Amino acid sequence: MTPRDADLYYNLGLVFHQQGDLEAAVAEYKKAIEIDPQHSAAYYCLGNIYKAQGNLEPAEVAYKNAIQINPRDAGLHYNLGLVYHNLGDLEAAIVAYKNAIQINPKDAGAHYNLGIIYHSQEDLEAAVTEYKKAIQINPQDANTHYCLGVAYRKLGDLEAAIVAYKNAIQINPKDADAYHNLGLVYYSQGDLEAAVTEYKKAIQINPQNVLIYYNLALAYALKNEVVLSVESLQAAMNLDEETVAKARLDSGFDRIRESLEFQDFIKFKLQEINGVVHRNDSGIKRQNG
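^ thats the sequence. predicted structure below, dont judge the formating
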């Protein structure tokens, strides 16, 4: 058999791959490799299937075999980085992503994923550097702008964080987390009106997020708007009743803590959780005895 025969099996594998018959595709790629052990494309496609299936160790082997044959393929190094990243071997992932970047400095994904790793290691300056490189290459990636905002906020550069979050929102107006985090920045700056505005936008997009309601309640508390704060806490507790214990001890509510509305609300919610009261279709009633 000749390399041309290997290509026939490889191309047949591609057909099965495109049809979603991954088992058949794997079989054909392996036949191609058996005939031509230097068939880097077959190893690459084999690695892609294993990675998609979550079989990370075989994927690692396949990509490394392909790299040994074709070491100047940036995509192979990038995918190997993804495998190491998912395996939790972050140092090996860093090496692989850097190899990809060395071959192709315009690989936005490699810069972004390097940023993610540095971010997870709390090396925020390095993370910012990589996010900014990724944005230079692909300025329309909303997620990179968002992650840049998170890093800037942790670094205490709130103005830069605001710009990054706003860029993320401009690209993806449905990003509830970007609105929420933008609200957190405004809250940190003491701009409570702006914080409330952003929290409300986040809730419109994602009305099932407990934390957004809770942070909205905190903002209203600092504004001394007791009723609105209690209403937001109620919405949070409708999603997670454990929130009442957090609110009971949170100093963020100190400004309204002595108000009857807040005290009665906390007291009632604790009684409700402890089974002193229960709800039915006709409203709230106290249990007898």
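Confidence is low (pLDDT under 50) at residues 276-289.
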